[in-house]
Specification:
191 residues
Length: 191
Amino acid sequence: LQNVAGHQAALGKQEEALLSYERLVTVSRKRAFDNPAIASLRADLYRAYLNLGNHQKQLDDALEAGRSYRLAREVLEQIPRETPDQLFELTTVYAVLASPPSDRETAEPDEIDAAELKRNADLAMETLKKAVDAGYQNALGLERSTDLDPLRKREDFQAVLVQVQQIPEADRLAKGSAPDAGTSLANRQKA
């Protein structure tokens, strides 16, 4: 269904694609609830909600897109987040929720909406830091993910980005400065 919806959208059949994304959510929800012990099915449900939200956002249906993103967040928060990539996925959902709906991008959000946007941005950054601490090292993913756009101007995001960009260099230097077994043996023999 995911492929069908994507192809329909690419062909300009937006309403058919919307129905396919909605059907994907329905099927994924049933599979996840019928098999609660299988975390990968809940991950499929989260992705189905996220894809539905992205499509709704493209159709300028900000209200429904926000609802789908919130449902994606709820599902994802229930999944054990044990890997850096899982934490990064949760970061992207919080970041999407930190973006004002497209129909309100030019208008200032009211106080309650602004507080909710800030809360989601803060949760995104907190989760991103946990992902990096857990070993997330995909600097390219951080640089290119449009889901993270609401965070890009934040100083703490820029600091995390720099930190992740420096990881490969630090690994290279660590490998270069650590002598291999042959060098260690030669050094000990000289002493």
